[in-house]
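Can't paste images in this forum, so I'm doing it all in text. The chain is below; anyone willing to post the predicted structure tokens underneath?
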Amino acid sequence: MPVHRLPESPGRVAIPAQSRGAPEPASPLERFNTAPAQDAERALLACLHSLRWALRVAGHRPYPDPASLLAAADEAAYDLSAKELAEALAAESLPALPEDTYSAAHTALNAAHAAYEAKFGHVFVICLDGVPEEDALDRVLTDIRSRLANDPEDEQVVAAEQLRHLARGRLERLLGGTGNCAYDPRGAAPGN
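Text version of the structure:
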């Protein structure tokens, strides 16, 4: 039987590194990239209730970094049809007011929401990036009153943009990022 010899290696010989300790846990992006398609789609639907959007974003995995995922999500949100936008808006709900909100603010906000829904046929959506919590109620009331002056076509464009911002903020939170899209109409981050 012939003897097998290793080839001659001039210089150094590479020795594989041995891992020490437990492997590092996967990042949220790695978990998203490697999750089963249905799990990724379900997580995305918690960010924006549009099946085509979720399928499109999940279908382009893996993403090399969070910025690429967010850019793809933005692009897919811009491509929503009027029907898909209406479906996504219909899945949103009114925000919960802070517990210490006085009753006059509840009345004013309820009246503004009712007027908005009567005019546009969907709930009011707004993303409050960088707005301190103590200023959120005033911002919502100011914006809802201002947007009531829009015609339905203009408001659809504004609502679509706000919905895209909400989806982006929810997706950032899903990835464990520092996104500050503080207004979530359901009152909680996806998965909470």
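Helices lie at 28-34, 37-47, 51-59, 66-78, 82-90, 103-120, 133-147, 152-174. The chain has eight helices and no strands.
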